[in-house]
């Protein structure tokens, strides 16, 4: 079965998260005054990039329903964008992404993990 466009986009965006995680780690090493927020953002990007790749792979393999896998991966990506984007902007330019961006991103990250937790436990017919 050929990869779908959503799967390809999720994989590409997961790779982008990994790339940005490495770049953020390097930036944190060279900016001692802003390093803690940058380090946290970089770590979140690096921790979640493989999780997103895994969700796409699990969905394509049939181990979990492909729709739930895509929803979990997309939710994790959106959460990363808000959480890490806010931390990074605050560290580098002292401007938030928007009010409550980081907490909203954190809630979405937890929701993405909850969906990932439920995906293998739900019957296939429910997906």
Automatic annotation (TrEMBL):
UniProt GO cellular component terms: membrane
Keywords for the protein's UniProt record, in alphabetical order: Membrane, Signal, Transmembrane, Transmembrane helix
Chief localisation class: membrane
Superkingdom to which the source organism belongs: Bacteria
Membrane topology annotation: Multi-pass membrane protein
Transmembrane parts of this sequence: 38-59, 71-93, 105-122
Signal sequence region: 1-28
Location in the cell: Membrane
Descriptive protein name: DUF423 domain-containing protein
């Amino acid at each position: 079965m050929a990869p779908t466009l959503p799967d390809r986009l999720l994989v590409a965006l997961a790779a982008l998260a990994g790339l940005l995680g490495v770049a953020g780690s390097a930036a944190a090493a060279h900016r001692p005054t802003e390093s803690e927020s940058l380090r946290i953002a970089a770590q979140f990007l690096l921790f979640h990039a493989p999780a997103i790749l895994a969700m796409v792979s699990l969905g394509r393999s049939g181990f979990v329903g492909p729709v739930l896998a895509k929803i979990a991966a997309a939710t994790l990506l959106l959460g990363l964008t808000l959480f890490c984007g806010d931390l990074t902007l605050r560290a580098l330019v002292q401007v938030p992404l928007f009010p409550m961006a980081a907490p909203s991103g954190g809630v979405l990250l937890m929701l993405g993990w909850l969906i990932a937790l439920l995906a293998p436990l739900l019957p296939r017919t429910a997906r």
